[in-house]
Amino acid sequence: MGTVGLLRAAGIGPGDEVVVPAFGNVEVAEAVVLAGAVPVFGDIDPVTYCLDPAAVAAVISHRTAAVVVVHRFGRPADVDAMRSLGQRHGLLVLEHSELDAPLSDGVAQRRSHAAYLDQRLSGVVTPIGSERHTYQQYVVRVPGNGRPDRDAFARAIRARGVDGRVPVKTPLHRIPGFRRDVCLPETERAADETLALPVDASLSRREMHRIVSACNALGGLLQPAF
């Protein structure tokens, strides 16, 4: 049963609010609307990119009926903390995975590639791993003056044969249909700075070296303005 069905089965609909992340996953917010409820955006944790329990607590109102937790980039959200929050406020807590397909046997190789990048990349902020991180995406941060710096960096590494992709170009609270005047500083910062680098299990050591060389050659783009 999908998110819409789970919400409806729980009796959630018109008059209810459901807290969801604004950092990607438009289908989650759409599911809330299809159930007849109103999506309310909570901010994310800057390390996991998943909903921050404290930020969720800050947007709970008397109309809040549920929270949809999204696991991001292969790193699980803190579901225990969110369920504890749900119990205190009487909220349904649902989990949503970015990928519907089961994980392949390439997890060990992706973790190996991630470790290789962790040790060799400079000038970007590498992800903080965990024993449960499967690295569906290897997401770094490109610091600087905002979105133009990250986008310039992405174009430059693509010119060097590295397929760097922006995982979330525009947060949901900034797009038509879901636009909200809310303060989500970590969501905004992540949307401006994050870039996914390749860690596919099929990548060769030479290809991994190309990623490192391309990224590390661009340190000049990363100097912040004062």
Automatic annotation (TrEMBL):
Its name, as the record gives it, is L-glutamine:scyllo-inosose aminotransferase
Q: Report if keyword Transferase is assigned.
A: yes
Q: Which InterPro entries match?
A: DegT/StrS_aminotransferase, PyrdxlP-dep_Trfase, PyrdxlP-dep_Trfase_major, PyrdxlP-dep_Trfase_small
Q: What is its EC number?
A: 2.6.1.50
Superkingdom is Bacteria
| Organism phylogeny | Bacteria, Bacillati, Actinomycetota, Actinomycetes, Kitasatosporales
Q: Which UniProt keywords apply?
A: Aminotransferase, Transferase
**What Pfam families does this protein map onto?**
DegT_DnrJ_EryC1
GO biological process terms, alphabetically, are: polysaccharide biosynthetic process
Q: Name one GO molecular function term.
A: glutamine-scyllo-inositol transaminase activity
Can you tell me where the transmembrane regions are? none
